[in-house]
């Protein structure tokens, strides 16, 4: 019989070994294992045990995520694993159910290794990412004049304090970012090694005054004996001219011929490049998945682009407190979301609510797909206008 209980800190290494089996990874003693230990020490740890042996695990990290108009507490769900010998026995459902019983935040979020799994637990894919490649073999220029302010390289020791205010401003502009403390910067962002690629250098950090920054790594290109590759980790600028200056810097790094990195789907660099053929979006993917754990608090806690008054029939089979009719009223800066007996304008599963929550996907598109039912004509379009955001959501951190 499988039982679910808290995992003590003394068993964290068992969790790491379990994730290695599930995700086909080898985690030897060293930086990667210690980094993983640190992450799990700060998490709510739930394990599935059979005869005293750990056969499944779910972790919940206390985090805070930027949402339109502000930020909200969020549980970052991590290391969701079940031994292959114990699949299809209800182990995952038992662990997720226990996690939901104790959630103390209006939102939960995760990265899905298999997208088909998490929709049935109420998670919706809430933002997308784009893989961008830039050919910099030839001189790379921009269509606008880059900001003329000087750049400086910052040591990894001083980087967290220098970058924190710049990142916080960027997170306020774009939903889906996780707020960071100094320890997260040092242990998770600015680590000496990139997990899965030992050939990459330690991070390089370049700052433009108090207006923007870039974090990157470099390595020799396995496809060429002459030119290396820039692995872009983060690039944030207060305006397009600052971003242009940072992209131009990356493109000018000696002995490199390509930049590659994950970026928001509305990134400016394809528009900024003087030669658009040098920039390619090689793929896009569903990145962060979001679950509304407390519908009322989550809808009241985000900002809205315009007033709206609508009734939603939310279907939630996993968290009964969310299931039912909710009236959302937004007037100016005030928003309320309360239970009601009124007839619904829209009926949707909590999964679809997670999909539209950060502004990534239009509700009207989900109506067209048959995933949301519109009872009042135009209700989806009206709510879409209220949900709209000036920048596409994007998440820099994985966990």
From TrEMBL:
Signal peptide: none annotated. One of its GO terms (molecular function) is aminoglycoside N-acetyltransferase activity. NCBIfam families: PRK01346.1-4. Residues 2-144 form the N-acetyltransferase domain. Acetyl-CoA binds at residues 80-82, 88-93, 113-114. Belongs to the acetyltransferase Eis family. Keywords: Acyltransferase, Transferase. Homohexamer; trimer of dimers. It holds the Pfam family Acetyltransf_9. The active site is at residues 118, 399. This is Putative acetyltransferase. It comes from Thermomonospora umbrina. GO terms for biological process: aminoglycoside antibiotic catabolic process.
């Amino acid at each position: 019989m499988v039982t679910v209980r808290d995992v003590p800190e003394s068993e964290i290494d068992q969790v790491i070994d379990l994730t290695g089996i599930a995700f086909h990874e080898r985690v030897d003693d060293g930086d990667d294992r210690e980094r993983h230990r640190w992450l799990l020490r700060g998490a709510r740890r739930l394990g599935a045990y059979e005869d005293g042996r750990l056969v499944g695990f779910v972790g919940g990290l206390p985090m805070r995520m930027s949402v339109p108009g502000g930020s909200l507490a969020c549980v970052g769900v991590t290391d969701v694993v079940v031994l292959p010998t114990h699949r299809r026995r209800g182990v995952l459902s038992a662990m997720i159910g226990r996690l939901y019983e104790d959630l103390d935040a209006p939102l939960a979020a995760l990265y899905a290794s298999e997208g088909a799994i998490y929709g049935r637990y109420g998670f919706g894919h809430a933002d997308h990412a784009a893989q961008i490649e830039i050919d910099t073999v030839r001189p790379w220029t921009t269509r606008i004049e880059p900001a003329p302010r000087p750049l400086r390289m910052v040591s990894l020791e001083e980087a967290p304090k220098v970058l924190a205010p710049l990142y916080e401003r960027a997170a306020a502009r774009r939903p889906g970012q996780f707020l960071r403390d100094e320890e997260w910067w040092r242990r998770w962002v600015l680590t000496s090694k990139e997990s899965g690629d030992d050939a990459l250098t330690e991070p390089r950090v370049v700052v433009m005054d108090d207006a923007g920054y870039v974090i990157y790594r470099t390595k020799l290109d396995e496809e060429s004996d002459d030119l290396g590759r820039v692995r872009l980790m983060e690039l944030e600028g207060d305006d397009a001219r600052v971003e242009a200056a940072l992209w131009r810097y990356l493109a000018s790094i000696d002995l490199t011929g390509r930049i590659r990195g994950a970026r928001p789907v509305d990134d400016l660099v394809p528009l900024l490049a003087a030669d658009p053929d040098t920039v390619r979006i090689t793929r896009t993917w569903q990145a962060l998945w979001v679950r509304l754990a407390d519908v009322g608090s989550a809808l009241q806690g985000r900002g809205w682009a315009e007033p709206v008054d609508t009734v939603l029939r939310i279907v939630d089979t996993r968290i009964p407190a969310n299931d039912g009719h909710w009236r959302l009223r937004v007037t100016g800066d005030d928003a309320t979301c309360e239970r009601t007996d009124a007839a619904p304008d829209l009926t949707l599963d909590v999964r679809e609510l997670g999909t539209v929550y950060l502004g990534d996907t239009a509700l009207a598109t989900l109506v067209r797909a048959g995933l949301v039912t519109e009872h009042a004509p135009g209700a989806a379009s009206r709510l879409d206008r209220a949900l709209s955001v000036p920048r596409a959501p994007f998440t820099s951190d994985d966990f």
